[in-house]
Design goal:
Blueprint (H helix, E strand, L loop, with lengths): L1 E7 L3 H14 L3 E8 L11 E4 L6 H11 L5 E6 L2 E6 L10 E10 L13 E2 L2 E2 L6 E5 H6 L12 H11 L3 E11 L9 H16 L5 H17 L3 H8 L14 H11 L6
Parallel strand pairs: 1-2, 1-4, 2-3, 6-10
Antiparallel strand pairs: 4-9, 5-10, 6-9, 7-8
Helix pairs in contact: 4-5, 4-8, 5-6
Length: about 270
C-alpha cells in the first residue's frame, strides 16, 4: 500500500485538483498527506490528513515531515501543481533491487512529454527520478534520513538518489503518468534559479558522493556560474563557513558506480 505526500505552497486550487486525481487513479493508496507550508487552511476532505508546520519547511523538509506520518510501506511524493493521469503499479511485485520508482511526466496543457523531467530507461532501471512525482520505499527513506535540507527548493532528489546508490538500491520505472502544470507560483525567479540550484546541488551532494564526483560537479557548475558573471556565488560555495558539517554517511564507491551504470545515470554534473 502507498502513502501519498503532497507539499503545498500557495497553490490552493492546484492542491484540490491533485487530491482529486489521487483519489480517482491511485487505487492502492490508503492515505493522503498534505503538508501546508504556507499555513493556508483547507476545508476537511475525507481521507486526507492536512498538516500545518509552524514555518515553511521547503520541499525537502515538508516531505520529511509528511513521511513521519506515513503508515504504508511505500511513499509517493507528488508536486502540488501536478495531477495523476495513470497509475498501474503493484508495489508487492517490485524487485527488491529497486528502492525508488520513476514516473512519466507530461505537460498538463499540451500533453507533450517533458523531456527534462523524464529519465532514460535501461531495462528495469531508470537513470533518475524527478521531484514532480516518484515513489520510495518508506523503510529506506527513513533509514537514510530522508532528504537533507539545504534550501527551500531544488535538487533534493539528487541527494537521496546518491545516498540510495551507496546502499546498492536503484531506481526502476513504473507505469505511472502525471500531468505537470509547472506553475510559477511558489517557484524562484528565473534569473536567480541557476545560482540557487548550484548552491543547493553542491551542498546536497558534498558528503554523499565519491570525492571525484563532487569535484566534477564543482568544475562544471563553477564554470557555469563564472560564465554567468556569478563569481561571488562560487566563492560563497567554496568558503569554509558555508560548508555543511560532515555527516556520518559513508559512500560505497562500488555500489554507487554499479547503480549509476545500471541506470545509465550521468553522475558527473
Amino acid at each position: 500500500m502507498i502513502s501519498v505526500i503532497v507539499v503545498s505552497y500557495k497553490r490552493h486550487n492546484d492542491v484540490i485538483d491533485c487530491i482529486k486525481s489521487i483519489k480517482k487513479n491511485v487505487k492502492n493508496s490508503t492515505q493522503i498527506i498534505v503538508v501546508c507550508n504556507d499555513g493556508k487552511y483547507f476545508n476537511k476532505i475525507a481521507g486526507v490528513n492536512f498538516i500545518y508546520p509552524d514555518s515553511n519547511l521547503g520541499v525537502a523538509g515538508g516531505r520529511n515531515l509528511g513521511a513521519k506520518y506515513a503508515k504504508n510501506k511505500w511513499l509517493m511524493f507528488i508536486d502540488d501543481d501536478a495531477v495523476v493521469e495513470r497509475f498501474s503499479v503493484n508495489t508487492l511485485s517490485v524487485s527488491r533491487k529497486l528502492g525508488a520508482l520513476s514516473v512519466k511526466s507530461i505537460d498538463f496543457y499540451s500533453g507533450e512529454l517533458r523531456k527534462h523531467e523524464n529519465p532514460s530507461i535501461n531495462g528495469m532501471y531508470s537513470s533518475k527520478y524527478v521531484g514532480v512525482c516518484h515513489l520510495i520505499r518508506k523503510n529506506l527513506f527513513l533509514s537514510l534520513g530522508g532528504y537533507d535540507v539545504v534550501s527551500n527548493y531544488g535538487m533534493e532528489e539528487y541527494n537521496f538518489l546518491y545516498k540510495m546508490y551507496s546502499t546498492g538500491k536503484n531506481v526502476g520505472n513504473a507505469d505511472i503518468t502525471v500531468r505537470h502544470k509547472k506553475s510559477k507560483d511558489g517557484r524562484g525567479m528565473n534569473n536567480e534559479k541557476v545560482e540557487t540550484l548550484a548552491i543547493a546541488k553542491l551542498n546536497l551532494i558534498r558528503h554523499v558522493v565519491p570525492t571525484e564526483i563532487y569535484l566534477s560537479h564543482l568544475f562544471f557548475w563553477g564554470t557555469r556560474l563564472i560564465l554567468r558573471g556569478s563569481l561571488s556565488t562560487l566563492i560563497k560555495i567554496l568558503k569554509p563557513s558555508t560548508k555543511r558539517e560532515k555527516t556520518n554517511f559513508i559512500t560505497n564507491r562500488a555500489n554507487f558506480y554499479l547503480c549509476a551504470l545500471k541506470g545509465r545515470t550521468n553522475v558527473f554534473y
